[in-house]
Specification:
alpha+beta, 11 strands, 47% helix, single chain
Length: 359
């Protein structure tokens, strides 16, 4: 590894020791500062341990090389040293890669839950049917990972498609796993209504937003306009009888969210606030990211919802992710929620791109 990279590691280890010493002191630090120090220490501990393992392996490699190259030494000892040396050499790249991954700046949103929004794009009814396919794909993926998947809002078409579908997904590493799904998803297939068998192309847009808590994004009551109205469309006997539907407009930004799926106005308001909070939090993240766009964005993409990221080709049974040139022939299984391999490839590509910038 380069001298500059080793200097970075030395600074990390020095900071880890410094925090450990500060935490050992019985002074009158405010509780908030003690909590902050404890979190920073915990975050650095895994990296410090990985660096220690790497440097121990490098020292052992140097020691074994001395023994293996000592012509005056015992032949049996040299043979044993050569065998162990080969094992150590093979382990060092993996240990170094682990250190590099842990050294990458963490996305504060990775540990958060997420709001999933899927909308039909170009393609009419076929696009709405595809949007429903995608929404169910993520629902099945959530089930496979034992996440909680709560539907917040559905705008359905007459034959099973979705104009718009919104869900809250909670569990371990939800946003970290789903954040690269944002963008335009394209489908190529023969619609059931197509008599001539021609392949049609349509699209749906996916947005994955970190689900912000009230402490993450502060919304002032004075900045909100809340309108209530009678729900429209499918929804049960309460439709058009009570003003249960809610539309919340955030006046400073003009963002508006409407919910009408619940019979209770209170529940619809709570759902609308959850979606609004996530959209405002994501807008702030995008603002910060744009200020350091060149350094932050990788080959995987910026999460821009206008970016075409993936094509689902039904006649050939394949999925292609255009950002990393990945093609898999498992369309049916993917639509049933088996997408871990695609997500793993995107995560690895993002890490590799950021590591190359780091070192």
């Amino acid at each position: 590894m380069t001298t500059g990279f080793n200097d970075k590691l030395d600074k990390v280890l020095a900071r880890h020791r410094e925090i450990g010493e500060l935490m050992a002191q019985t002074d009158a630090r405010p509780q908030a500062e003690r909590i902050r120090l404890a979190k920073e220490y915990s975050d650095l501990t895994e990296l410090a341990e990985a660096v220690a393992k790497l440097r121990a392996a490098e020292r052992e490699k140097s020691d074994l090389e001395v023994i293996a190259l000592d012509a005056s030494g015992d032949a049996e000892m040299r043979a044993m040293a050569n065998t162990e040396l080969q094992t150590i050499k093979e382990s060092i790249p993996g240990l170094a890669q682990r250190v590099k991954v842990l050294l990458l700046p963490k996305d504060a949103a990775d540990a958060l839950d997420a709001i999933l929004e899927v909308r039909a794009g170009t393609g009419g009814e076929e696009a709405a049917l595809f949007a429903a396919n995608l929404f169910r794909m993520y629902q099945r993926y959530a089930e496979r990972r034992r996440w909680t998947f709560e539907i917040l809002s559905l705008s359905e078409t007459g034959i099973g498609g979705y104009k718009e579908a919104i869900a809250s997904i909670s569990g371990r590493d939800v946003f970290a796993r789903l954040k690269f799904e944002s963008g335009v998803h394209r489908v190529q297939r023969v619609p059931a209504t197509e008599a001539s068998g021609r392949i049609h192309t349509s699209a749906a847009t996916v947005a994955v937003l970190p689900e912000a808590e009230e402490v993450d994004i502060k919304i002032e009551e004075k900045d909100l306009r809340i309108d209530t109205y009678r729900a429209q469309g499918a929804g049960g006997q309460h439709v058009n009888k009570t003003e249960s539907a809610v539309r919340i407009t955030h006046l400073p930004t003009g963002l508006a969210v409407a919910c009408q799926d619940e019979k209770s106005q209170h529940k619809n308001k709570a759902r609308a606030m959850k979606i609004l909070r996530a959209r405002l939090y994501e807008a702030e993240r995008e603002r910060i990211d744009s200020e350091r766009a060149d350094s932050r964005r990788s080959q995987v993409g910026s999460g821009d919802r206008s970016q075409r990221i993936r094509t689902y080709n039904f006649p050939q049974g394949r999925i292609t992710d255009h950002r990393i040139g990945l093609t898999v022939h498992k369309l049916d299984r993917a639509l049933d929620g088996e997408i871990d391999d695609i997500i793993d490839s995107l995560t690895a590509e993002d890490e590799a791109s950021r590591i190359s910038a780091l070192v």
